[in-house]
Amino acid sequence: MSKLLPYFDKNKIEAGCDEAGRGCLAGPVVAAAVILPANFKNELLNDSKQLSESKRILLRPIIEKEAIAFAVSFVYEKEIDEINILNASFTAMHRAVDQLTTRPEALLIDGNRFNSYPSIPHNCIIKGDGKYLSIAAASILAKTYRDDYMEKIHEEFPMYGWKQNKGYPTKKHRQEIFHHGECKHHRKSFTLLPANQLSLFD
Asked: Which residues have CB under 8 Å from 75's CB, separation 6+?
């Protein structure tokens, strides 16, 4: 049963914000912003990392249908390499907020750091996706949209196993980078092959 809180401040229109894919070696970082009704309830809704893929897929259309507003934004590899992954995560959240059809009065940010959004106050909440419904909803949208994208580019580069690893630095993913080299979807600013692990891939 979900024990997540419905709001941080009941007197404000709040958008929960979260991202997915920060620690990946390939693909975009994806952020979502979600404004839920004050009376929104769903017993399944939780931090996306605590849910099975099938439950995330089940929840996504419910969130999209019942949200007052939601938006998803992608920041791709080239921009990640130019501005670094932390700034790319914040940029993706800003762009998601930009797209909301209802302007929030406050932002609830998953994590401990954020670049302020112009004229909207924010609260950084560590492990916020396991504490607030709107952040949990944002985490599910960010994760499912990113997973869909990684499965799509898997068709073009099946050797990296993105359908399974979604671009995260698994041993198999790094083995395939070692054997096939990097491709256009890899983040060149990341350590794709740690020097101390190269012997594992021979």
From this structure: 28, 29, 30, 31, 88, 89, 91, 92, 95
CA distances from 26 to 31, 76, 85, 166 (A): 16, 9, 12, 8
**Domain spans of the chain?**
14-154, 158-201
CB 189 within 8 A of CB 80: yes
DSSP H helices, the chain, are 53-66, 77-83, 85-99, 133-154, 162-165, 171-180
SS3 assignment, position 33: strand
CATH of 14-154, one of 3.30.70.100, 3.30.420.10, 3.90.550.10, 3.40.50.2300: 3.30.420.10
Which of the residues in the chain have pLDDT under 50? 1
The alpha carbon of 73 is separated from its chain's Cα centroid by a whole number of angstroms, namely: 9
d(CA 182, CA 167): 12
pLDDT tens digits, 42-99: 989 887 888 999 999 999 999 999 999 999 999 999 999 999 999 999 999 999 999 9
